[in-house]
Amino acid sequence: MKNVSLLAAAILFAACQETPKREPIVVNYPTTKKVDTVTNYFGTDVPDPYRWLEDDRSAETEAWVKQQNAATFGYFDKIPFREDLKNRLEKLWNYEKVGSPFKEGDYTYYYKNDGLQNQYVVYRKKGEGKEEVFLDPNTFSEDGTTSLMGLSFTKDGSLAAYLISEGGSDWRKGIVINAESKEIVEDTLVDIKFSGISWKGNEGFFYSSYDKPEGSELSAKTDQHKLYYHKVGTPQSEDKIIFGGTPEEKHRYVGGSVSEDEKYLFISASVSTSGNKLYLMDLTDPNAKLVTILDDTDSDTYVIDNVGSKLYLVTDRDAPNKKVVVVDAANPTPDHWEDFIPETENVLTPGTGGGYFFTEYMVDAISKVMQYDYEGKLVREVKLPGVGSAGGFGGKKEDKEFYFSFTNYNTPGSLYKYNVETGEYELYWKPQIDFNPDDYESKQVFYNSKDGTKVPMIITYKKGLELNGKNPTMLYGYGGFNISLTPSFSIVNAVWMEQGGVYAVPNLRGGGEYGKEWHIAGTKLQKQNVFDDFIAAAEYLIANNYTSKEYLAIRGGSNGGLLVGATMTQRPDLMQVALPAVGVMDMLRYHTFTAGAGWAYDYGTSEDDAEMFNYLKGYSPVHNVKEGTEYPATLVTTGDHDDRVVPAHSFKFAAELQEKQAGTNPTLIRIETNAGHGAGTPVSKTIEQYADIYGFTFFNMGYDELPNQAVLKEFKD
C-alpha cells in the first residue's frame, strides 16, 4: 500500500511540474455578413449565407480579404520562430537548379535558377560556346509574379513562341520571337487558356482557348474550348477555328498537336478531365478533312508517335493500366488496333526518343523503366540510380543521347545523360545543397483502409527516429483525377524533416498509382473511399507511434484541399492542425465556376440527380462545418487570382469555421494577393508562405521554439 501511495505522489508531483499550457492567442475575426440566399436541390433547401463572397470583383469582398489577412498576419506576428523558419528556408533554397538540356536548331537550351531567383531563366549555348540568357522571366514584372508557362520552337529552331501568366492566372499571353535575334516578330496574342503551342512548319501554330466570359474572367464559367490556327504576321482576329466552333464540336477541353514529321495534326476533345475523343488531319493535303480515330470518351487515348502512316497510340481502352497499340492512319479506329506494348500489372507511362520507346512503369508508386525498339522488342531494362522517381525518358528521333532525372523524398533531383544505343548513363548534374540525404530514410508501408483495401504509404524521416508518439508529422494527400504521387524531393519537406518532422504520403484511391480501376474507386459515389484511405493513414501513423493526435498535421492542395476539408469535418478529433490549400470546398457549386464542370467525371454534380446531390452534400466541407464542434487549428490558404479553384471556396469555408468553431484553436485564412492556383508562384512568395504554414503548424503543436534549434544555430554560425 505504501508503494502505491508513493507512486501516486510521484505522478502527482510530475504532473504539477509539467509546463503549463500556453494561453491561446485571441484572434479578433472580422465579422462576415450573412445573406438569405437559398438554393433548392431536388426538394431540399440549402442555405448559402456567404454566397456574396463569390463576387471577386466587389469592394465588399476585397475589404473582407484585407480584414482576414490583417487578422491572420497579426497572429503570425506572435509566432516566435517564424523568421527563423523563413531564414532557414531561404538558406536551403539558395542553390543552383538546372533543368534537362534540349536541342533546338543550332542551340542547346536549358532552364536554370541561381538559387533564389523568383523564376527560372532560359539559357542556351551553341556547341561548346558561351552560355547566354535566352529568356529571363524575372524581367517580365517587378514583383516576379509574371511567369513563363510554355515555350515552343519551330522544327528548325528559327522561331519560338512562349506563353506568360500574369498574377498566377490560367489565362495566357503568347509572344512570338526570332530565336536567333530574340526580337519580337508580331503583336502579342491574348486570351489563351489551357493550351500548348504546336508549330506547323515556320508559317504558324495551333493553340486553344475559350471566348472571354461575361462577368469576371477569374470566376465566370468557361465550357467551350476551341482550337485555333495562327499564321505568323497576321492579326489574332484572323485566326482560323480548326475545331470546337460549332454546337456539335462543343467540348470543355480541346487540344491540337503536330507530329514530329509535321505530317499530321492530332486533335483531342474532352468534356471532362478523363476520357477523350481523338481525330487526325493530314497536313500535307490542303483539302484534308478530319478523320475520326475515336468518337467516344470512354478512354484516355493519345498518339505518341508515327512512322509514315503507322500510328502508335497510348490508351487505357480495354487496358486499365495502359498499353501501346499500332494502327494505320488510313483505318485508325479501335477495331484495327494491334497491341504493340501490351498492358501489364503495372501502370505504363511511355516516351520516345533516339529511335526507341521508353516505358516507365509504376510499381507501388516507384519507377521501373524499360527500353523497346520500333518492332516492339525489349532492348533492356534501364537500371536506375536508386529507388524513387525517374522522368524525362524521351527526346527527338535523331537524338543519340538525352537526359533523365531521378529523385525521391530524401534525395534532391539529379540529371543523368543517357546513351540510347548502349544504355549507359553518367551523372550530368547534381545539386550542391546544404542537406545530407544520408541522414534520412524513406520507408514504404502498406495499411488497410476502412473497407480492407490495401493502400501504400511512404514515410520519410531522420534516421534514428524514436517511435514515441511525439514526432511532428505532416500527412500529405491528393487522391483524385488519376494523378499519382510518386517520390520527389522538396526543399520545404527537407526543412520539416530537419526539425525532426515525419513526412508521410499515402497513395489514396482516386489517384493513378494502380491504373484506371484505382482512379474510378475514388470518384463520384465512391469518393468517400479517398477520405477513408486518408483517415486510415492517420490512424496507422498514430497506432504505430510515429505520432499522436497532438502532433499530427494534414495537408493537401486543390483536390487535396477538398481531402483535408472533408477529413477534418468528418474526424476533427484525429489531428491537431489542418492545412487545406486552394481547395474545392463547395461541392454543390464547384461546377458553376470557370472550367469546374470538367471535374464532374471525378465528382459528379449537384444537378445530376437527388442521389448525387445528397452524396455531395454529405461530404462537402462548406456544408459540413457543425456548430459547437472543436475543429483543429486550421490555416486555409488560397490566392486571389486563382481561376482554377476560385478563392470563394476557401472564403466560404473559412467563414463557416470562424462562425462555428467551439474550441480555442485558431481558424485562419491566408490569401496571397496577385497569385493563382500555384504554378509560377515567385520563389520569394513561396518561402514566405511556407514560413507561415510551418510556423503556424509547429506553434499549434505546442512548440514555443523549434524542435531542432541546433540546425538553426548551425546555419547562423
UniProtKB/TrEMBL annotation:
Per UniProt, subcellular location reads as: Periplasm
Alphabetically list the UniProt keywords. Hydrolase, Periplasm, Protease, Serine protease, Signal
The protein's superkingdom reads Bacteria
So what EC number does this one have? 3.4.21.26
Q: What class of enzyme is it?
A: hydrolase
**Entry's Gene Ontology molecular function annotations:** oligopeptidase activity; serine-type endopeptidase activity
Q: Name one Pfam family in it.
A: Peptidase_S9
Q: Which residues form the Peptidase S9A N-terminal domain?
A: 30-428
Biological processes per GO annotation: proteolysis
One GO CC annotation, please? Answer: cytosol
Please list the residue ranges annotated as the Peptidase S9 prolyl oligopeptidase catalytic domain. 487-697
Write down the PROSITE patterns for this protein, in alphabetical order. Answer: PRO_ENDOPEP_SER (PS00708), PROKAR_LIPOPROTEIN (PS51257)
Reactions this protein catalyses? Hydrolysis of Pro-|-Xaa >> Ala-|-Xaa in oligopeptides
- The primary site where this protein sits is periplasm
What is the role of the protein in this entry? Cleaves peptide bonds on the C-terminal side of prolyl residues within peptides that are up to approximately 30 amino acids long. Has an absolute requirement for an X-Pro bond in the trans configuration immediately preceding the Pro-Y scissible bond.
Q: Would you identify the family this protein belongs to, as annotated? A: Belongs to the peptidase S9A family.
Name of the protein in its database record: prolyl oligopeptidase
The organism is Flagellimonas hadalis
